[in-house]
Amino acid sequence: MNKVLIALDCNTTDKKIAEVGFSFAKAMHAEVILLHAFLTPIDYSSVSYEPIMGFAGFSNLDTYQQNSEILTKTGLDFLDNVKKHLGDSSIETVVKEGEYAETILETANLYHADIIVIGSHSKKWLEKIVMGSTTEKVLHDTNIPLLIIPTKKK
């Protein structure tokens, strides 16, 4: 194992995912890449959007570029905080816009990741049918091994 890609979605469970993935990578003497993918800014203006990291979404979508830059900066700030928490300045951080599963897989292939670390929020069955599961999509569309961290609260 040379490279471990840890996909984070700015959820409260990311601390656990990052710590487990980082420990795994360090045990294998592998490089760590932290990835955060975000949807297009228009998705954050919808009524069904649930705020993350205190980001309440956009009420005004005047300029796509400006809003995309805000989401990129917010993601980079989040990943920098995770990097500081893990205490390793050699960790690479990547923020990309796009559909979650596709972006995770594209990034894993681009960086030649040997394994992808991802969380599973264990949503209810109806939610999975309606919106699908990022972890499930990644699992079915990759040949790269996955380390899936369950994050369901007991």
From TrEMBL:
Pfam families: Usp. It comes from the Bacteria. InterPro entries: Rossmann-like_a/b/a_fold, Universal_stress_UspA, UspA. Residues 2-150 form the UspA domain. CDD domains: USP-like. Belongs to the universal stress protein A family. PANTHER family: STRESS RESPONSE PROTEIN NHAX, UNIVERSAL STRESS PROTEIN UP12. This is Universal stress protein. It comes from Flavobacterium myungsuense.
